[in-house]
Specification:
29% helix; alpha+beta; single chain
């Protein structure tokens, strides 16, 4: 699972050969979540509210890059790093 970004203790990654819809995974401590890239809806898991808010803010700023990385990972290619939330 390639890591594509890390900020404020949140680690964002994509799996190779994942199922649709396009989504990414994030970890924060013992919490894990999967988020739909297009709608930014949580598909599974939970994060504390503050961490989830930061994650969704970051994802909304980088939707195009996330979709590009999704396609790269689906093709078995390494995704590119994405700038962290500042």
């Amino acid at each position: 699972m390639p890591e594509i970004c890390r900020f404020y203790g949140i680690i964002v990654a994509l799996f190779y050969d994942e199922h649709n819809p396009p989504h990414f995974h994030a970890r924060y401590g013992d919490y894990k979540v999967a988020v739909d890239i297009r709608s930014l809806v949580v598909l599974e898991g939970t994060l504390p509210p503050r961490a989830l808010g930061m994650l969704i803010e970051w994802a909304s700023q980088h939707k195009g890059e996330l979709l590009k990385d999704w396609e790269l990972a689906r093709d078995g290619k390494p995704p590119e790093r994405i700038e962290p939330l500042r």
